[in-house]
Each structure stands twice: as structure tokens, then as C-alpha cells.
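Input sequence (139 aa), recorded before submission:
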Amino acid sequence: DPWCLGVFIDNELGWYEDFVHNSLAGTLDMPARAAVINLLKEKYATIDALNAAWSTQHASWDALNGAPATLEELKEAPDEFKAYREDRKAIERLIGNRYYKVCHDMMRKVFPNHLYLGSRIHKAGPEVYEEAARYSDVV
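Predicted structure, C-alpha cell format:
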């Protein structure tokens, strides 16, 4: 269609709660989980170091099974989850970067003469918006 300037890919993804928790609670062979665990291993050399920072008791990296706090808990006890809050930002950036880069690269391949309008973002942290801006023509 000559009137089509570009496209959105996806609509109002659940950035806040779903992606971080699901990446930590996914199956051991899930690529997103592996990427997030690797990110955490770079910061925390051992699972004991992560447990100390997050106030958790995971027996191993493989036993890590979800986010240690919900968004509501983060609001109610911000100091208690300080380390997790910071790590969550890094996880959102990691996932956002991968998502928008893959979409961008495919848009350039499939629709090289159209704008990539990103996704319709709803309730995301600044890290997600920054990654969207890195790869999208319009945010």
C-alpha cells in the first residue's frame, strides 16, 4: 500500500510485571531465562551473593524461580528490595534491547522502505523506552 508509512509490532506489552518474572520463572532451556541468568551471574559471582542482595534463598541458579517481589511489594517496601529494583532495570533493558533489535532488523529485511514504529508501549520503565528509541524510527 503506497499510503502505508510504517507499522507497529505488538500492542501494549506487559513490560512491568510479566517479562521480568517470566524470564526468571521460565524453563531452564528458555533463551530469555538464560540471558537473564547470565546477566545476574556477571553481577553476582555466586547464587549466595544474589541471595544476600535479594534476601532470597535459592539453592542454585537453576532453582531461581521468579521475581522476589511484585510491583506492589516494590511500592510498599522500596528499601527492602533495593538491589532487586536495580537489577530489574537491567533485566528490562536487556529484554527491551533484544526485543526492539530483533523487530528492527526484521522490519529492515521485510519492509525496508517503511518506518518501524516500535510497539505501543504501555506502563514500561524508562529503560524500555530508551531501548525502543534506540531501534525504532518513532516512539
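Checked by second reader. Helices lie at 15-25, 31-43, 47-54, 71-76, 82-110, 126-135.
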